[in-house]
Amino acid sequence: MIPSQINIVKIRFFTAVISLLISSIVFYNADIINRDGILYINIASTYTQKGLTSLQYFHFGWPFFSIVIAHIHQITQLSFETSANVLNIVLFAIFTDTLLRISNKILPNYRQVAVAALFFLCFLTLNYYRSLVVRDPGYWAFCSLALYQFILYIEKPTIQKATLWQLSMIVAILFRVDGVVILLGLPLYLFAIRPPKQALKQSLQLFYLVIFALLVAMLSSIEQSSLPLIFSRFYLYTNPDYVLTKFNFNTELIETQILNQYSAKYSALILSSGLIVMLVYKLFKALTLGYIAIYIYSWWNKTALKSTPYRSLIAYFLILNIIILVGFIFTSYFISRRYTVLALISLLLLMLPRICDTVEKAWLSKHKPILVIVGIILSVSLANSLINSNSKLYIKDVAIWASNNLPVKSAVITNDKIVKYYFENHQPVAKISLKSKIDAYQNYDYLIVVEKDRHKVLKQQLDAMNIKAVFKLKNKHGDNATVYAIHSEG
Q1: Is there a contact between 453 and 418 (Cβ–Cβ < 8 Å)?
Q2: What is the mean pLDDT of each run of 10 residues along the chain (490 residues)?
Q3: CA dist., res. 240 & res. 245, Å (int)
Q4: Per-position b or e across 441-450, b if 16+ CB within 10 A of its CB
Q5: 181 touches 324 (CB < 8 A)
Q6: Whole-angstrom Cα distance, residue 77 to residue 70?
Q7: Burial of 2 (0-12, 13-18, 19+ CB in 10 A)
Q8: 413 φ, ψ (degrees, to nearest 5)
Q9: I want to staple 7 with a disulfide (CB 3.0 to 4.6 A). Which of 25, 110, 340, 404 is the partner?
């Protein structure tokens, strides 16, 4: 092994160790489980007890993440929540390692790969999700691994590399159905860099396993009635009638409720451009101001760079992810930051050659001001990832107190999913019900609610109720969770 390869192996090893350490610290400092995580944990628990057929009652057609959690729980005897966090800790390590392997293909030397490792490890948006029980890290990890395998296939087309590309994409799709767009779209890049006949032949190599899997699925014992549920979300994204109907409905609302008669004809333009601007804003906000500032400085520095290998491939990968985001935003009319991560990583990979070159030259020339500024940006970003400034532990503690202290057979109502989760996980003698509305509260003995300053309507509703607080905890921001005893009308 040549010295540069040895250095890359060392960088990958230390990056994996640091990634595991960051994830462990974030997991340890996490206050409560996230709301989506409760769904995944409940699915995993139900699967463990009743098997795969019981999952149809969750109306959630993509249970692979929960099934893996369930098997980790069975093998290790860890709690479902800990099993989920262990899984995501490993997935984040795979993700960061894969990003380094891609960086090694596009950067000229091991020093720049080491700089790239720092930017990945300190990336605030990425680190934010280390504490959450979500299936996205599995999608990010294996989709990135598929991109890396695709690069290897371009370098030396073999059946083995084609198989590894397909296996990576299949696992990615098992985490999120959005990966179908990448699976179908990425091989088309071959037609831009190969003669048509050769591109067609290699595309078939990149799809042979998928074609075989589809044939097996069609001939298997999977009930046809379950297929619409499993693929319902992907169907909605790709069904033009659904997308157009929803778009027309929303443009009509803008036309009739907001715009006057002179500007009504622009309602479709206003809606579509507004959604696109929202997407662009989300992307740049998630990229973080510090990273953008470093990149702008590297441009301003006007350093000449050699052509970056696979730049057009990564740009195409970015376009595919933008297509996924546009499809999502035009069907759901909102965008969560975590859906943008692969697009952000694509942008960061495109930015890295210039950023890493600038930092490397500053290091070699001992340009301390630049090194200090970069160090501060990375340190602040990492610190924000590790420090929880808005504790929600009060919600968990109130739920556990209620579980341990409310009388036997008393009936409890809450409108908070997290309260119900922790209440039921501590062997309660009372019974709790989750209701989106608490209007019928008088049918219960106790009420548990989470109150925040912005919940003005809830506060007015509580003031009008015949209730008395029996236990209450709050955080330093004034948000609180309260157990109320409910008095009967008589």
Answers
A1: no
A2: 76 95 89 91 90 66 89 95 95 97 95 96 94 94 97 95 94 92 95 94 90 66 44 55 73 76 77 88 92 92 79 96 90 84 96 94 92 95 82 90 92 92 89 86 90 75 86 86 81
A3: 8
A4: beebbbbbbb
A5: yes
A6: 10
A7: exposed
A8: -120, 140
A9: 110
* DSSP secondary structure, 149-199, as one string: HHHHHHHS--HHHHHHHHHHHHHHHHH-TTHHHHHHHGGGGHHHHS-HHHH
Cα–Cα distances in angstroms (integers) from residue 23 to residues 107, 119, 126, 170, 369, in the given order: 26, 16, 11, 25, 31
Q: Are 425 and 37 in contact (CB under 8 A)?
A: no
Q: Are 428 and 483 in contact (CB under 8 A)?
A: no
- Judge contact between 424 and 434, C-beta under 8 A: no
| 3-state percent breakdown (helix, strand, coil) of the chain, nearest 5 | 70, 5, 20
Tokens (6 digits) for 313? 């491939």
Question: Smallest Cα–Cα separation from 180: which of 216, 230, 247, 246?
Answer: 230
Determine the straight-line distance between the first and last CA of the chain, rounded to whole angstroms: 84
Nearest partner of 278 among 328, 241, 319, 346, judged by Cα:
328
φ, ψ (nearest 5 deg) of residue 488? -75, 160
Alpha helices (H) in 365-443, listed in sequence order: 368-386, 393-405, 417-424
450: which strand partners? 481
Residue 33: φ, ψ to 5°: -75, 150
CA-CA distance, 278 to 304, in Å (whole number)? 34
Beta strands 467-474 and 480-486: pairing type?
antiparallel
> Encoding tokens for residue 39?
């769904």
Q: Which two tokens stand for residue 211?
A: 């074609």
Q: Which residue, 375, 277, 287, is CA-closest to 329?
A: 277
Cα separation, 154 vs 152, whole angstroms: 5
Query: In whole angstroms, what is the distance from residue 148 CA to residue 166 CA?
Result: 12
